[in-house]
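[Automated response] Your request has been received and processed.

Submitted sequence:
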Amino acid sequence: MTGVLVVGESLVDVVLRRGSDPVEHVGGSPANVALGLARLGRETHLLTRFGTDERGGRVRDHLEASGVVVVEGSQQPGPTSTAEATLDATGAATYVFDLRWRLPNTPLPPHPVAVHTGSIAAVLQPGASTVERILHGAHRHATISYDPNLRPDLMGRPEQVRPHVESLIATADVVKLSEEDARWLAPGTAPQDLVGSWLGLGPSVVVLTRGGDGAVAVCARGAVEVPAQVVDVVDTVGAGDSFTSGLLDGLWRQGLLGGDRRADLAAIGRTDLTGVLEHASAVAAITVSRPGADPPTLADLVP
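Generated structure:
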């Protein structure tokens, strides 16, 4: 296989904005990453869970319309999970979830060059144990990427969550973390200091996204920083997920994905890493200029 396997939740975002009727968009952090990669022209398989209701049909149609291959068994009896996303005056979202997370026992695509997971899927049982087994099983042949994308209402207190998050980080080659998540998970620690400490757990690249302040990444050769692109923000739904899609696509362009490229990824230079971050930022910038998690295609990125 020359593609990527994404493992994680898919759901329907019910977006609430003061003075407007609710609007529904297909979402879920890992599903958004899969969608973003597929729109960037990458072979992408998604192992997920959605229901047999009308919303579940919309989830499948939305993913497959952009080229995502939904792994057999992902559609399961019962309702599709939802996330109520309440937007403030700046377009920033807060979430309330109604989520079911159990993964099917199903054959997986063989030997992907990368396996990505994160958010609720990597923490909420019973599905989280299956996710962890998949990561360990894929480590020899695939680059492992992880975005904690923390949801405090579902995950408990920081001191309960952090050991599990850091055990997953120790498995990963690429980690992306938002500044908001860093401040919640490690109060009293500067986010960039947390990211630096995580590099010591085993990843080759750890990225900290900072919204309008851009992004910082650390690797063995040092730290790099890129500014955020200036756009008119409609909302931030799916922004971090689009950044992750762009991050993986950028590393793919550099030929740095796959278990056989692990040493090359570990030796990535600051110039190459800067280019990867600029690409990821461009992908995220287009997404925040649109309503909902609507990442760009390759054609959208052409100046």
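Summary generated for your ticket: DSSP finds ten helices and 13 strands in the chain. The chain has a mean pLDDT of 92.
If you did not submit this request, please reply to this message.
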